[in-house]
Amino acid sequence: MATMKKSTSVIRFFDTHRWLLSDPRFEKEAHLQLGIAHRTLTATKAKAARARAALARRRAQADRKRLLASLERSPQKAICHVFGAYCGEALRVARCESGYSVEAQNGQYLGLFQMGTSERRLFGHGVSALEQAQAAYRYFVRSGRDWSPWSCKPWY
User: Fold this and answer.
1) Which of 28, 75, 134, 155 has a beta carbon 3.0–4.6 Å from 129's, enabling a disulfide?
2) Cα–Cα distances in Å, from 75 out to 38, 87, 134, 155?
3) Could you give the 3-state DSSP secondary structure of residue 109?
C-alpha cells in the first residue's frame, strides 16, 4: 500500500508540475521518475489484485470446510443440503430407514438410506452423512424422484 501511495504521489506531482516534463534542465529525470512511478503503480496494483484473489480463495475454502464440517456433524443438515426442495421427504425416508444413523445396517443394506450392494456400487456410498446423502440423491434422481426404490415412503 505504501508503494502504491508513493507512486500515486509522484504521478500527481508531475500532473501539477507539467512544466518539469518539458524544461530541458529537468526533462530527462522527470520522464524517468514518472515512468518508474507508472510501472511501479501498475505492478503493485496487479500484485494487490493477486493477493485479494488469493485471500478470497482462502476464505471460500475455509467457508466450504466449515460448511462440510457442519454437514458431517448433522445427518439432517447433510440430507437437506443435498436434497434441497425434497428435504422434508428425504428426512422422513432416512428417519424411517435408519433413524439418521450413518452406521445403520440391515443385511446388505447400509447407511442413512439403507442402500443395497448393487445400488452402492452404482451410485456410491461413504462413511459420512454427506457422502451417503449424495449417493441416495443420485439414486433418487435416477429412479424418477418418486421414492419407489425405498420401502419407507415419505407419506407414511
Assistant:
1) 75
2) 56, 12, 12, 20
3) strand
